[in-house]
Amino acid sequence: MPDTTVARDEFASIEKIPKETLQDRVYRQLTDLILSGELAPGQLVTIQRLADAFGTSAMPVREALKRLASANVLTVVSGRSIGIPPLTAERLSDLRRVRREIEPLAAEWAIGRITPAQIADLRSCLEGMNRAIAEDRIKAYLRGNKAFHFGIYTAAGSPVMDAIIETLWLQISPYFHLLYDSGNYLVSNKEHEVMLEALESGDKDALRASVQRDIDLAFDVLRDLLD
């Protein structure tokens, strides 16, 4: 049998591929902007403006945008600007149906794993969101809302689940801007309090029900707006 052993230095001249490319970093920053409520429906941002903000050329921004556009997260307008794609009633219903299964499950998995420090962080997020509501700071509330929910889901200890939930939120979270005038933020924060109490007490049923109610409350408002 021929010796197929590769000499140790046979590929020594090949340059190692960076673990994270510039495009990957731009993609990550763009997803963070979307999840944190920095882009609202109807808002257009030029590709050059993003490139200037990131301190890069337009090329890695365009490549990252292609990935997000293929996932129906962003839409490219005239090749120079980006925006949030329209949300149809059908897609809204589908997102709600999937979120009602996935997010409560991740929250349940967090029970027994979440640490006192993580609980304290969630409490701090909740207080910050209450201040944001009182001061009419929509983006501050949305940043806190994202941090609160993902603080719970990340505590589940499943990167696979995190990736699934992030994909869902990238499609729906920009529309959380539209919930403000309905008073949803205040009602939603009451559900957040219930979630936190259920996490602390280990009550899976109460936690699942609260996460689903939170999703349903937002869905009801957005469905009426679409109608």
Description:
The structure is a single chain. The chain is mainly α. The protein folds into 2 domains: 22-83, Arc Repressor Mutant, subunit A (Orthogonal Bundle), CATH 1.10.10.10; 89-226, GntR ligand-binding domain-like (Four Helix Bundle (Hemerythrin (Met), subunit A), Up-down Bundle). It is 65% helix and 4% strand. The protein contains 9 helices and 3 strands; from the N terminus they run αβααββαααααα. The chain has helices at residues 22-35, 47-54, 58-70, 89-110, 116-134, 138-154, 159-172, 184-201, 204-226, and strands spanning 45-46, 75-77, 81-83. It has a 3-stranded antiparallel beta sheet with strand order 1-3-2. Strand 2 and strand 3 form a beta hairpin. Helix 4 packs antiparallel against helix 9, helix 5 packs antiparallel against helix 6 (138-154) and helix 8 runs antiparallel to helix 9 (204-226). The model is unreliable at 4-8 and 11-17 (pLDDT under 50).
